[in-house]
Amino acid sequence: MSDLIAASARFDREVTLRDGTRVRMRPIRPDDEPRLVALYDDLSQDTRYQRFFSVMRRLPPDWAHFLANVDYQRRFALVAEPPGDADTLIAVARYEPGGEPDTVEVALVVQDTWQARGLGLVLFRELLAAAEANGIRRFRAWVLADNRRMLGLIARLGDVQRRAFERGVIDLTFVIKPQPP
């Protein structure tokens, strides 16, 4: 396990957003449980619904525990912290084992005041890179049909192999799109 944690350390660094703001990106840690609850509390109802397909009053403690404790290989998550505030999370990108053995499910949430600044793109790109470093090549995402930002991220970074639509949710299976050198 310590080798996996050490390997994921390359994702612990400052990144620059489109507007020049620098935020810290890092792998999630078990002590992020309360920060995940606080992040959920800070999300608008619309953002909560876009991410979880429901609006809960609070993120249940057992969910926060599960989400903050990953193995850094089959389950991985990156978080972002605002400048100079290591006690606050403003975004989370993660992958979890999917229903198929060679596929992981991906998810992303960015706190409302940090949206449309390029943070989602940075985190999602780095999440896919972490998955690829862990030997994962296929991804699946369930995205609400009106979630144009997430659909745009997947279209930009992924090569969609399968798409299905049911009850307002688009089910996508994709691989990483080859990037030009």
Helix percent reads 25-40%
Low-confidence region ranges? none
CATH class: Alpha Beta
User: Under CATH, the topology is which?
Assistant: Aminopeptidase
Main beta-sheet annotation: 8 strands, mixed
Blueprint (SSEs and pairs):
Elements: H1 2-8, E1 13-16, E2 22-27, H2 33-42, H3 45-52, H4 61-68, E3 76-81, E4 91-97, E5 103-110, H5 119-133, E6 138-144, H6 148-157, E7 158-166, E8 169-176
Parallel strand pairs: 5-6
Antiparallel strand pairs: 1-2, 2-3, 3-4, 4-5, 6-8, 7-8
Helix pairs in contact: 2-4
Describe this structure in words.
The chain is α+β, with helices and mostly antiparallel strands and 181 residues long. It has a single domain (2-176), classed as Gcn5-related N-acetyltransferase (GNAT) (Aminopeptidase), CATH 3.40.630.30. It is 32% helix and 30% strand. The chain has an 8-stranded mixed beta sheet with strand order 1-2-3-4-5-6-8-7, sandwiched between helices. Helix 2 crosses helix 4 (61-68). The mean pLDDT is 89.
Features:
single chain; 181 residues; alpha+beta; Aminopeptidase; eight-stranded mixed sheet; 8 strands; 32% helix
